[in-house]
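User: Please fill in residues for this 536-position structure.
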């Protein structure tokens, strides 16, 4: 007899339907799996037999053939254990009625009959909804992740005995109820803990408000990492769609906790990370760190210590906000829309132009160290800030700085203005604007055009990308200041945040406009607080 069930497998972060056909026929006893199954699927025969024996059943002493269709798609993983086990029982006529008709069935079996968590439960649930199926049958540990999808039933099972009870009619198929989303974002850190660094704080607020990439440079131990780790606390809360997309990526990568991801991810890979681990890849492509940071923050600490080929590969994802990985078996496109926050020392010893210690590096060593960060990569960093040491008095000041909640409120108001302006193009923040949208939404008055010309001629900014990104940052500064237009002050302030070489005191560097002397926006002055001049 032939039994048929529906299942799925992951291609990138999306699920595609797989039909599981199980045939039990007369002939020499054997167990064969066809349909481009990975070794982990074929080894499932041992797990399936052990699980069935644990509940008083067994794989029949007949010719058992399992076909996974379509046959031209590779099927990795152990999530086919449960549908194959159910198919064996139905094909052997132990049970007459397939109560799982119209359900996507997924689950890895243990030898004791337990059903273990699987990757991609949310992706399977989304596919079931889109295809008009009844729902999904998944391990209980993955049920909450899938239950956030509305319009389908999510049946949670913990042991194969429960599945057999449903087949026999002894157990009801009760759908899982999704837990309500938390309305409160809780973080263990807060921006109020950071003392001084008015310019760096203001730059970070601009970066978050507009979705701009930012590079912090400066001596070690002055708060670059501390500031970067507090970026998620000033980001707006994720929307439901963003939470679904983020959870789908985490589930596909196998790092999901089985529930909806409600806080924006913060990924900080070590500088020894490989290109495949950062970008994604493998014989069966899986999401890398940039995809795990989707809708969140990717923090690259000590940027110059990363392998150059690794960080140079970030150029395309930074522009396209997705990464395409090609392998012999096919090509997958993974989401990669993240806020890049990077930090670096100004030289190998870290004390160049610090005013604290004397730099011991030769000019050649400094040049070689900085050359690890190529010009095209730095050109994609919208804000480049040199973070200077703070005084002992500022460090020991007991007065808390501005908290994350107050900064987040300004960021959310600025984001709301951007979304209202960019809604008809389907964009969310200024950093996402392509050239045609930027020309339409960032028209510069005469004074701003004159300021831009002065900045370009003085700074030697010759690339179209650097000019476009400066204008986008200026647009974000105007949004934070609640200004309808970009004025000359916004242009000058934006240029001050693209002056890393000049700020570090490099020989022969072009002049830079001091943000404290520029016509800074009121929002940034508020963000900087009483120590705004420090570090500028």
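Assistant: Residues filled in for all 536 positions:
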């Amino acid at each position: 007899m032939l039994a048929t069930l529906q299942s799925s497998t992951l291609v990138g972060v999306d699920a595609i339907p797989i039909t599981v056909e199980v045939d039990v026929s007369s002939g020499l006893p054997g167990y064969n799996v066809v349909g481009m199954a990975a070794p982990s699927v074929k080894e499932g025969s041992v797990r399936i037999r052990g699980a069935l024996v644990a509940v008083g059943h067994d794989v029949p002493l007949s010719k058992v053939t399992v076909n996974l269709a379509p046959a031209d798609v590779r099927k990795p993983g152990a999530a086919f254990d449960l549908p194959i086990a159910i198919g064996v029982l139905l094909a052997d006529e132990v049970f007459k009625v397939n109560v799982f008709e119209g359900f996507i069935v997924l689950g890895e079996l243990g030898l004791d009959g337990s059903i273990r968590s699987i990757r991609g439960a949310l992706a399977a649930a989304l596919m079931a909804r889109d295809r008009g199926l009844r729902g999904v049958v998944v391990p209980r540990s993955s049920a909450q992740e899938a239950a956030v999808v509305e319009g389908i039933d999510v049946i949670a099972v913990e042991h194969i005995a429960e599945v057999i009870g449903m087949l026999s009619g002894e157990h009801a198929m009760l759908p899982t109820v999704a837990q309500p989303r938390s309305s409160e974002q809780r973080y263990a850190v807060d921006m109020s803990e950071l003392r001084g660094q008015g310019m760096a704080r203001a730059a970070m607020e601009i970066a978050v408000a507009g979705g701009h990439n930012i590079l912090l440079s400066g001596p070690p131990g002055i708060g670059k990492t501390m500031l970067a780790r507090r970026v998620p606390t000033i980001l707006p809360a994720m929307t439901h769609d963003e939470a679904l997309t983020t959870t789908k990526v985490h589930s596909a990568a196998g790092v999901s906790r089985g529930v909806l991801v409600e806080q924006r991810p913060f990924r900080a890979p070590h500088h020894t990370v490989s290109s495949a681990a950062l970008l994604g890849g493998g014989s069966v492509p899986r999401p890398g760190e940039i995809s795990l940071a989707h809708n969140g923050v990717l923090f690259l600490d000590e940027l110059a210590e990363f392998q150059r080929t690794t960080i140079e590969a970030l150029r395309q994802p930074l522009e396209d906000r997705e990464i395409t990985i090609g392998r012999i078996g096919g090509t997958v496109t993974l989401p990669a829309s993240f806020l890049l926050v990077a930090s670096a020392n100004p030289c190998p010893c870290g004390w160049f132009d610090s005013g604290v210690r004397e730099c011991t590096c030769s000019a050649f060593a400094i040049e070689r160290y900085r050359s690890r960060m190529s010009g095209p990569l730095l050109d994609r960093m919208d804000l480049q800030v040199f973070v200077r040491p703070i005084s002992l008095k500022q460090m020991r000041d007991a007065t808390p700085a501005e908290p994350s909640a107050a900064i987040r409120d300004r960021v959310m108001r600025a984001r709301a203005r951007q979304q209202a302006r960019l809604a008809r193009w389907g964009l969310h923040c200024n950093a996402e604007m392509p050239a045609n949208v930027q020309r339409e939404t960032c028209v510069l008055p005469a004074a701003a055009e004159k300021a831009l010309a002065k900045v370009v001629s003085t700074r030697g900014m010759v690339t179209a990308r650097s000019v476009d990104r400066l204008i986008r940052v200026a647009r974000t500064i105007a949004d934070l200041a609640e200004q309808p237009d970009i004025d000359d002050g916004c242009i000058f302030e934006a240029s001050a945040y693209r002056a890393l070489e000049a700020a570090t005191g490099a020989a022969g560097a072009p002049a830079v406009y001091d943000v404290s002397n520029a016509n800074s926006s009121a929002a940034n002055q508020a963000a900087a607080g009483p120590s705004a001049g420090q570090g500028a």
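For context: The first strand starts at residue 2 and ends at 11.
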